[in-house]
């Protein structure tokens, strides 16, 4: 007797990991060539205007700093230079990798110029702050449009210090329909300002993160950007505020201290993201900070070994630094970021940025349903 077994469709599940790449980049003065007036306030963007722009000459002469006055008067910032600057950023972001899923930008002027960059790169969506900063400097977050990345909300936070600075941008996402992720983009007050100002920025970030986690303990939080903080800052905004209650982990520090990561990788990495010539000093001004949700090995998590200070040869140059050894004058060659020069008119002369970008990956599980077919067969009965 023959028994006919009909075809059966069985569902099997397989766990696969998906990744998201994140880049943070201080692009150093990405301005358009138009004067901004926000809420009836003239922004001090005069340096980054054409020489013949109405009011520029008078505004430049009103600059108190001799250095900045000279730079303002000399710079002829045109739309052609804006395009050149954008093409330089495009090269950094895309030359050696696919477009990052998230790109945090620091030192950008407005939605107009960020929109032009986003279009060039291929991003359909971005968020940007509207900060009270005197020069009109803002931060932005560009992100891919995919079925796995859904924006939930955005807001920005004013840092209440004596002199207007950049707002902190907060954008919440839902990843793969189930993993909540909040990204903060930061550009804290410069090192020319009191340490207490950066403490205030740290408190804004810390307190807001605590509020979010109180509402949703499963929220993954990633804070990125230029934190303008060095080791000898006192009080130190990371040690005093961000690391309190083990809320945040510094990804660079965790990478360097992880014994499972090859020492050759660590030694090959640039000694910092920013080089300060007057003190012959490298600093890590640019950071990723993550909360415990991204470090617990569950659901969405940080891929620590993927962390990188991106310093390829094409955005690096040899900087000649003069110094004195007793009475002898010597020249020291320092490898440093090929900083942006607004007077440049070619790819070679305009440079890139005084900061190196940083990169890291996030990973999350995805349940993939696969169909397996049991073919029909004929069995004989004894």
Describe the SSE topology.
Elements (H helix, E strand, L loop, with lengths): L1 E3 L3 E23 L6 E2 L2 E2 L13 H6 L4 H9 L4 H16 L7 E7 L2 H11 L3 E4 L9 E6 L5 E9 L10 E8 L3 E9 L7 H21 L4 E7 L10 H6 L6 E2 H7 L5 H6 L5 E3 L4 E3 L2 E5 L10 E9 L6 E10 L2 E10 L9 H4 L7 E17 L3 E3 L2
Parallel strand pairs: 2-5, 10-11
Antiparallel strand pairs: 1-20, 2-19, 3-4, 5-7, 6-7, 8-9, 9-10, 11-15, 12-15, 13-14, 16-19, 17-18
Helix pairs in contact: 3-4
Describe the structure.
This protein is of the alpha+beta class and 382 residues long. It has two domains: 2-33 and 79-315 and 357-378, Deoxyribonuclease I, Chain A (4-Layer Sandwich); 34-77, no CATH class. Helices cover 23% and strands 37% of the residues. It has nine helices and 20 strands. It has helices at 56-61, 66-74, 79-94, 111-121, 195-215, 237-242, 251-257, 263-268, 347-350; strands at residues 2-4, 8-30, 37-38, 41-42, 102-108, 125-128, 138-143, 149-157, 168-175, 179-187, 220-226, 249-250, 274-276, 281-283, 286-290, 301-309, 316-325, 328-337, 358-374, 378-380. The strands form six sheets. The protein has a six-stranded mixed sheet. Strands 8-9-10-11-15-12 form a six-stranded mixed sheet. Strands 1-20 form a two-stranded antiparallel sheet. Strand 13 and strand 14 (281-283) form a beta hairpin. Helix 3 packs across helix 4 (111-121). The chain starts with a strand and ends with a strand.
């Amino acid at each position: 007797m023959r028994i006919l077994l009909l075809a059966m469709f069985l569902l099997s599940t397989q766990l696969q990991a998906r990744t998201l790449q994140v880049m943070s980049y201080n692009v150093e003065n990405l301005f358009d060539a138009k004067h901004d007036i926000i809420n009836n306030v003239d922004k001090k963007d005069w340096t980054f205007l054409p020489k013949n722009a109405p009011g520029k000459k008078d505004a430049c002469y009103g600059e108190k700093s001799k250095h900045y006055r000279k730079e303002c008067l000399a710079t002829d910032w045109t739309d052609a230079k804006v395009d050149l600057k954008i093409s330089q950023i495009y090269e950094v972001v895309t030359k050696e990798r696919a477009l990052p899923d998230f790109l945090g930008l620091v030192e950008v002027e407005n939605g107009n110029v960020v929109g032009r960059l986003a279009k060039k790169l291929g991003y359909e969506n971005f968020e940007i702050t509207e900060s009270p900063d005197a020069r009109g400097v803002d931060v932005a977050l560009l992100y891919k449009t995919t079925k796995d990345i859904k924006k939930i909300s955005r807001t920005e936070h004013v840092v209440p210090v004596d002199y207007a600075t950049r707002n902190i941008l907060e954008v919440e996402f839902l990843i793969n329909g189930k993993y909540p992720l909040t990204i903060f983009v930061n550009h804290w007050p410069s090192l020319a300002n009191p340490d207490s100002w950066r403490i205030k920025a740290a408190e804004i970030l810390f307190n807001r993160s605590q509020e979010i986690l109180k509402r949703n303990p499963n929220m993954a939080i990633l804070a990125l950007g230029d934190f303008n903080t060095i080791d000898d800052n006192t009080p130190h905004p990371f040690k005093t505020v961000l690391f309190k209650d083990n809320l945040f982990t510094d990804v660079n520090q965790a990478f360097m201290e992880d014994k499972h990561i090859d020492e050759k990788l660590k030694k090959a990495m640039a000694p910092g993201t920013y080089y300060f010539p007057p003190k012959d000093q490298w600093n890590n001004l640019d950071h990723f900070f993550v909360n415990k949700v991204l470090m617990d090995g569950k659901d969405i998590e940080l891929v620590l070994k993927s962390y990188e200070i991106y310093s390829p040869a094409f955005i690096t140059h040899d900087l000649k630094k003069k110094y004195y050894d007793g009475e002898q004058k010597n020249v020291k060659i320092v490898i440093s970021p090929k900083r942006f020069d607004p007077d440049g008119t070619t790819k070679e002369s305009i440079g890139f940025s005084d900061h190196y970008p940083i990169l890291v990956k996030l990973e999350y599980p995805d349940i993939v349903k696969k169909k397996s077919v049991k073919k029909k067969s004929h069995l004989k009965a004894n």
